[in-house]
Amino acid sequence: MKKLFLLLFVASFAFVSCDENEDPQTYQGDSLTYFADGTTSTFFVEENATEGYKIPVGVTDKAATDRTFTVSVDADLTTATPDQYSVGTSFVIPANEHIGYIEVQGDYDNIALEGSILALKLESIEGSNIADFDNVYQLKLSQFCPFDIALEYNGTASIVGQGTVNSYDVELVPTGNLNEYNVATIWGDFVAAATGNPSYAGEYQYAGVLSIDCLGVVTYSSDEASLPGGTGSYNEGTGNFTIILDQELFENPFQVEVVLTPKN
Description:
Helix content is 10%, strand content 44%. The protein has helices spanning 2-21, 190-195, and strands at residues 32-35, 40-45, 53-59, 67-73, 85-87, 90-93, 99-106, 116-125, 129-130, 136-143, 152-159, 163-174, 180-183, 208-212, 217-222, 230-234, 241-247, 254-262.
């Protein structure tokens, strides 16, 4: 038994050692250029800002000299007007580097309060090829307009035209994006209260993401794609949220009005 154990141990050690000593696998195909950090993001433009937004562009190999790459504005995907941004058409990946950057400047005064999209397309690069993936980047331009949002609320949910159904607690958890919050429940135990069936307590909580634009317009997106979301408003004076949820999955669709009032 001891000999068998020793043989298994030695074999295992040899296997691990062999794996550790193998050369790392490297990409051996054609040189490809693509957007290196996803293809969407948001640029929150501050008033009187001097710094722009840098979008990384990667290439799969290195070159001994600088390589110039070019971009264009994809008119079909762009909703931003030319007075809202400025961006060049050619940029550089430095010699012996894999990454170069596109820099976009935003004009705070002209950016639409509801935000707009600037879509950039990779066109060409010296000594490489544009990849057939991750070659268009959509940058949302938004004014930097942070709100002083409370994080704990008293909530009420009412069927529109029929009155209040239930009351509950709501906590907003910042996602890290400007004016955007995760919400574990937007209407509490609404289903249990609306059906009169306490066995539904804690079920169908309607978790999602709440976001506010610079106009105070609120959007609520459910974490479950099959569930509809809602829209509403944020009152900066009172700190209240009012959101209308569209319940279209039922045989008889209806709307639920949610009111969130900051706790004292």
